[in-house]
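re: that chain from earlier
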Amino acid sequence: MSAHYDIVVIGGGIHGAGVAQAAAAAGYSVLALEKTALAAGTSSRSSKLVHGGLRYLESGRFHLVRESLRERALLLRLAPELVRLVPFYIPVYRTTGRRPWQIAIGLTLYAILGGLMRENRFARVPNSEWPTLDGLNARDLQCVFRYYDAQTDDAALVRAVMRSAQSLGTELRCPAEFLRARRDGERYFVDYLDERTEASCTATTLVNAGGAWANTILERITPQPAHPGVELAQGAHIVLDVETHAGVYYVETRDGRAVFVMPWHGKTLVGTTETPFSGDPAQARAQPQEIAYLEQTFRQYFPDKQARVIESFAGLRVLPSGKGSLFHRSRGAVFLPDDPNKPRVVTIYGGKLTGYRATAEHTLQLLRTALPKRAPRADTATLPLRDAG
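^ sequence. v structure.
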């Protein structure tokens, strides 16, 4: 007889791991399926930052910033081995699009939304300290702001969240490819490939956390939930063979976008781009023009560093369809329930690494009407996350 689960989670990225942890903590029986490896997709190809999203203030996404800053504060407390506060620097030049007063207003609002805690305060870096900033180009430099956000190892964080989920009872199958699910009455019959053997189970609800593969997963569910209009945007990063140590630099590119330059395991990580993507998500690669774009940005701000690209990678963001630049689309998670009145399948599109826990809690809230009553085992807001090395 096949095993039965309250929730089957499809996808082993940060949102799949987060939902598995939240569901197990709430007392539900959970099976998590991951086709290749935990964090094999975008969850290991991010900018490695746990941050509030300073630039989202310009588009009025105050709720997203407030939520992200709250979640960042939680992760700093729950995962001190994995998430650490680091200084961020914003250099302002004569040609920078945003004036110092505009940036100061944004940083003030950022601090307010973060509750005015000490880690959310900002300051101007005295001119006398500019030479300590990794060789930052001082020509036409008007001022430098310093504030604080956090950095993490994204893949290690995913693994830590999934370990927490497993400690609460989640069963993980990896590698295990989701093949199909068919609804019959109050349950789904689920088939998956567990390594090379086909296996089956039943489930009360399904969570589609497949990221760039989300719509492919929906096509394997009967009856098939509606597909929303989404677009894929490729975010490329490069790793340079030079070290930066002072902190993360938040710089403006020649076309007005923002790029991070940050220390990473004794090297320098630079990213990210925003390029439309189509095709097989497994084939996402940093393109030559993206690599050149990021190299040029680094040279603009650190002209005296002789740097060589030693690695590049690209992740895919799932963004709502719409007009205008991909750069200005919302980064908040979008939830698609199969039935708005009593969802049994919830698909998660987009979302930020920082807000994975809040995304998971909202997903569970959507499924409550279809799930049986269970006694909670824990609260994800208090569960420590540890780096297993």
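The longest strand covers residues 141-152.
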